Amino acid sequence: MSSADPAGLPVVDAMTPAVLVLPAAVTRDEVPRLCADVRARLAATGGGVVVCDLAGLGPPGLATVDALARMELAARRAGGRIRLRDPAPPLRALLDLVGLRFELEGQTEEREPASGVEEAVESRDPAV
User: What is the mean pLDDT of residues 80-105?
Assistant: First the structure.
C-alpha cells in the first residue's frame, strides 16, 4: 500500500469565493463580458458567490448600476449571487435610490445576529 500524495490539481479552499475586479469606468459595451465572467467564475469554482471588487471604480453612474444589476441577474440564473467589496458611499447611495440591494462583504446576513451582540431584556417583559 502506498500513501503518497495524489497527483493532480492542488486542493482549493471552497469557502474562498472568486473575485472579479471591475474596471475604473464601466460602460454598456462591457456588460456582456462582465456577465460572462461572473458565470464563468461561478462554474469554475462551483461556489455560490462571486465577489465584485469595486475599489478601483471611478464615480458611479447609471451604467455602473445597470452593470451590477445585470451581473446579479446572470449570477442568479447560474445558481449564485454577487457580493460587493469596497463600494464607495456614492455608489451605495445610488443603489439605495434605485432600490437595489446587494450583499456587501463584511456585513452579517439579515437572519444572523452580529457577533458579540446581546439583546437587552426589560424587567417588565414577561418570561417566555
Answer: 93
- The rounded distance, in Å, linking the Cα atoms of 116 and 57 is 33
What is the Cβ-side half-sphere exposure of residue 113, based on CA atoms within 13 angstroms?
A: 5
Which one has a higher pLDDT value, 57 or 3? 57
Q: List, in sequence order, the alpha helices (H) in the chain.
A: 31-45, 62-77, 89-98
Q: What cell does 82 get? A: 454577487
- pLDDT over threshold 60, residue 23: yes
User: What's phi and psi for 72, nearest 5 deg?
Assistant: -65, -45
pTM of this prediction? 0.70
86: DSSP letter: S
CB neighbour list of residue 23: distance below 8 Å, 6 or more residues apart:
30, 56, 57
Residue 97: alpha-carbon gap to chain centroid: 19
**Does residue 62 register a pLDDT over 60?**
yes
User: Strands of 81-85's sheet, edge to edge?
Assistant: 18-21, 49-53, 81-85, 103-104
Distance between first and last Cα of the chain: 60
